[in-house]
Amino acid sequence: MNVEDGWIGAEGEEEGRPVLVRVRDISLEAIPEDEFPHLLSSTWRFGEDRDGSGLPSAKQYAELERFELVFDKMEEDGSGVLAIVRTHAGSVEHVAFVRDVEEGIAAIRAARPKRGDFELAASPDNRWDEYRAARDALVE
Questions:
Q1: Is this prediction's pTM over 0.85?
Q2: Of 119, 126, 117, nearest to 48 (Cα)?
Q3: Which domains does the chain have, with CATH numbers?
Q4: How many CB atoms are located within 10 Å of the residue 3 CB?
Q5: H or E segment and range at residue 128
Q6: What tens-digit pLDDT sequence spans the chain (140 residues)?
Q7: Helices 58-77 and 101-111: crossing angle, nearest 10°?
Q8: ∠ CA 120-85-52, rounded to 5°
C-alpha cells in the first residue's frame, strides 16, 4: 500500500493533562482491508516527566523516534501500516494494521524501548473499524 505522509492531528485534555492524537490521512476508499486484516496495538508506558504533563521528555522523544522506525520499515516492506498514535498520561500507543500478527509482534518487540512498561495487543479488524472511528472523530 502506498501511504501518503499526511496526518490529521488533534490536541485535547483529559484529567487535566494533554492528549495528543495523530491519525493517518488515508482515504477510506483506499483502505486495503484484505491486505492488512489485523490490528496490532503497542503501548509504551514511559512514565511521568518532571513537569507532570504526561508527555515524553526530550530524551524519551528521541527514544520514541528510534522506536517508530520499525513502522517505517513495516511500510517499506509491505508488512503493515501505522494508522494511529495516541499520547497521554505517561504513555504512547501506536495502532498499526498488519498482514501477519506474529511477524508484526516480532518486529515491534525487537525495536521496543528498553525502559518503561511495554504492552502488545492484537485483534482481527479487517474493516479497520478502529481507524475509521478515530478518523471520523477528528474530521467531524
A1: yes
A2: 117
A3: 18-139 (3.30.70.1110)
A4: 14
A5: none
A6: 445 568 999 999 988 889 999 999 988 788 877 899 999 999 999 876 667 788 898 888 899 999 999 999 999 999 999 999 999 999 999 999 999 999 999 999 999 988 889 999 999 999 999 999 999 988 87
A7: 150
A8: 95
